[in-house]
Design brief:
The chain is α/β, with parallel strands linked by helices. It has five helices and six strands. Helix 2 packs parallel to helix 3.
């Protein structure tokens, strides 16, 4: 979860293709003190460049027909596994979240010293149903699932 004591807003790249949806999201995000747009991308190349250059926690994209996340979302997750993707249909009737899970395992070496090793594994998706605008803002205000895992990992290091 975003640490409210640091007052650091959740950082978002806006890559939703639907013009009206993008405008609505921009308006809502810029009015929330806990959210910050760190870039807007119109193409896959722009999105991947922004993922590399910013410390974004979230990418918001338009869902493809059938409710699928676009390929660019998978490419963004490959570049930064701690990122979370929020896909929204152009009419905002369906919202899907995608992220990569952190797998932690304990390894015991020859000297019987145990250490933890973390690796990013399988992408995960979840459909978020019946979200209000307030719910959407609350989801974005939370640390992205991968960011939460990275924060948890650093606490144990």
């Amino acid at each position: 979860m975003n640490d409210l004591s640091t007052n650091r807003p959740s950082r978002i790249i806006l890559a939703a293709e639907a013009g009206l949806l993008r405008e609505m999201l921009r308006h809502v995000i810029t009015r929330s003190p806990h959210l910050q747009i760190v870039g807007e991308a119109a193409t896959r190349a722009q999105l991947l460049t922004m993922v590399k250059r910013t410390d974004a926690e979230w990418v918001i994209v338009s869902l493809l027909p059938g409710g699928k996340l676009p390929d660019a979302a998978g490419a963004a997750l490959a570049l930064r596994p701690s990122l979370a993707i929020l896909g929204i249909t152009s009419d905002a009737s369906q919202v899907k979240m995608g992220w990569t899970e952190l797998n932690t395992r304990t390894i015991t070496g020859a000297s019987d010293c145990a250490r933890e090793e973390a690796t990013w594994v399988h992408p995960r998706e979840a459909i978020l149903e019946e979200l209000t605008l307030a719910d959407l803002i609350a989801v974005l205000h939370e640390a992205a699932p991968g960011e939460r895992a990275r924060q948890d990992e650093s606490k144990h290091s």
